[in-house]
Amino acid sequence: MPDWYLILNGVLIGIVVAAPIGPVNLICIRRTLAYGRTNGFVSGLGAAIGDAIFAAVAAFGLTAAASLLMMFGDWLQAVGGIFLIALGIHTYLNKPADNEAVNAKTSGKLAAAVLATFVLTITNPATMLGFVAIFGGVGGLVTTEPSMLTAGLLVIAVFLGSSLWWLGVTMTVGLLRDRMTDQTLVLINRVSGGLIISFGIFILIRLIVNSIS
User: Fold this and answer.
1) With contact defined as beta carbons under 8 Å apart, do 29 and 40 qualify?
2) What string of H, E and C letters represents the secondary structure of the chain?
3) Between 2 and 145, where is the model more confident?
4) What pLDDT, in 10s, does the model give residues 155-210?
5) What does the buried/exposed string (b/e) look like for 123-139 if buried means 16 or more CB atoms within 10 Å of the residue's CB?
6) Phi-psi category of 72—alpha, beta or left, where left has phi over 0 and alpha has psi -120 to 50?
7) What is the pTM of this model?
8) Are the beta carbons of 164 and 20 closer than 8 angstroms?
């Protein structure tokens, strides 16, 4: 019998990790408004895959992988910060397309949508530490020697929870898409692009300050 308590906790963890408003949420919302629900949801799946990888590292007790991620943590965050700034500039300068052009281009943009949010998620080792802390605080879900089945169920549940969050976000935002004018979409691009750039700059400044102190 499946461990429904474990699965429920994993789903809730996936939602909790995905929910905080940050660059990935901004990207998902912006892509939903610009390219439709499918593109927005697929953008979220990139982050869900990254969350699942970190969940696997925590659940399976992959200490070597965890140590490696933390060893190169500053470099990974630097890459993530630069990537955010570049993505933010692209978002800021991006112009809205008409619906026919959007429909024609959507399928070609799906791979890029997944890759962008996956890179942003996987370059933040702090997320993995968050998983370890959360797993250890919800009924002893992580033990020193977890079974393969238990760990596997937990990782799948986290992925499902994260995916459910992105589905909810894109379905909700998608309801507003048809009411958006080109001027509104331009404004959204400007605001979200500026915020994404700010996230990237903040990451780089924090790394510099930490290296000096």
Assistant:
1) yes
2) CCCHHHHHHHHHHHHHHHCCCCHHHHHHHHHHHHHCHHHHHHHHHHHHHHHHHHHHHHHCCCHHHHHHHHHCHHHHHHHHHHHHHHHHHHHHHCCCCCHHHHHHHHHHHHHHHHHHHHHHHHCCCHHHHHHHHHHHHCCCCCCCCCCHHHHHHHHHHHHHHHHHHHHHHHHHHHHHHCCCCHHHHHHHHHHHHHHHHHHHHHHHHHHHHHHHC
3) 2
4) 899 899 999 999 999 998 888 877 766 677 777 778 878 888 888 898 789 888 88
5) bbbebbbbbbebbeeee
6) alpha
7) 0.73
8) no
Which among 5, 8, 9, 7 has a CA at the least distance from the CA of 136?
A: 9
Quick: pLDDT tens for 2-36.
567 778 888 888 888 888 777 888 888 888 887 88
Residue at 92: amino acid letter: Y
Residues in the chain: 213
